[in-house]
Each structure stands twice: as structure tokens, then as C-alpha cells.
Amino acid sequence: MFERFTSKARRAIIISEEEARNLNDSFIRPEHVLLGLMQGDGLAAKALGQLGVSLEEARAKVASGAARAKTGTRGSKVPFSPQAKRALEMSLREALRLGHNYIGTEHLALGVLLVADDGTVMHVLGVGADEVRRRVLEVVPSGSTSESPRSPAVIGTMWRARELARSEPMTTGQLLLAILGDQASQAAKALGKLGVNRESLQAQLVQIPIGETSDAPPRPRAIEIKLGELTTTIDDPDLVAVLGELSTEQIRAALRDAFGTDPGRRRSTSGD
Description:
The chain has 272 residues and is mainly α. Helices cover 53% and strands 4% of the residues.
């Protein structure tokens, strides 16, 4: 993935490690990446600079956060926290969503906003993640994406829906909940006139299993199971439906019960 990073994005990551080390943090966290993105002349720095927060002020806010664990030797490499790693992964997804074959500072910023706690963003930058995201998308060069222009409310809705979905596929229910997250939007006002609010919608959604709707992921038509050096293809619809609900470990456990051992790990002793 790092081969897709632009020179400015790589520089921001290097700076984020320096920021974490200077603050005696044992991990590079999303807030350190924000500090790295504020420096340089990348698109993210341009967008974050519009918020009116100085680097010194943001750095002081990060330093005033949770107690820091010592990194040990000054020159040791500082690893990424799980949340920061997730931000890097999401930056790739954001780049692909925008139709870009590279990861720039703007994509890094969008990735951080998808995983960082909104309270963290608010604490460091003084505004919510929705506002930061809007400003970042505003500096993305026009014509660099095949997507049609979107209103600020749509951008905010998609952002909130992705937050609700996390790593799972986004559903229409999550989109509706995200719409109601902005009471000033056209759709939220219309739903309000119909007597629909977030609480009543949530109550109805929990009563409707996703598996019984068109939001459910498509079921595979066939499943391949490897037993040692043999591969068996199962295409019986009913059996595929049952196996599709099981994890690999559950299938292995069933095979152990049936054969007395794990066929995938059995080894022939003939000829030894």
C-alpha cells in the first residue's frame, strides 16, 4: 500500500512519527497523523489550515490528552496504533472511492476522520469531523473524480453512514439513520413531517433482520472445501446456504466429528 503514497503523504507519516516520539508516546496515533498532515504544502495542510488552528496550538492539545507511555530509547522506531493502522487502510479506500490511483495527504486525512473519535478531532482541531471532511473534499482538484457533485448534506450523510457501518457493508437502514443525523437536511425535514425520528426508526430497524431484505449480501452459488490435496465443490443450494453461515473453524469441527480428525491436516503414512 505504501507504494501508492505520494511523496507529501510519506513525508506526513514521517513527521507523525516524529511528533509521537517528541511527545513520548509509545504509538503513532490518529492525532499524530493529523499533526503530520498540518505540516508541508499538501492538500490536507491547505484544508486544515482553513480551520484557523495553529500547529503549536494543535500540538499542545494533543500533548494535553491521555497520559503517555514512554517510548524507551529516543531513536527507536515508533509503531502505529491499531487505530492509526486502520486509518491508513481507510485512506486507500477513500482514494479508490474518489477514482484515484494514489494516496495523497487528502486521502490520509479522510482515512483519519473515518476512524478517529469525533471528540479527538474536535479537541485537536476545534471543529467536528464532518466539517473537516467537507473542507478536505473542497480542496480535491475538480475533475479528479468521476462522481457527480454532492451537496454538503449528502457528504455528511455518507460520512455518518460509513461510521455506522464501520468495516461492514453499508445498508439502507444506516443511510436513513445517517440522514436523520442532520436535522437541517431536506430529507430529514421531510421525514420529520411524517413523524419519523431517529429513535422510532432505530426501533423498527432492529425488528427487521437484514437477512430477510435486499440489503443482505448475496449468497455464494457454490462453496469449495479443500480436504488435504483434494478440493470438493458443493453446489447444492440448500447445503451452500447452511455452510455459508458457518465459519472455517466450525466446518473443520464438523469434519473432525465426522472423520475423527481434521481431513485438511491428515497426512498419508504409506511409503514413509
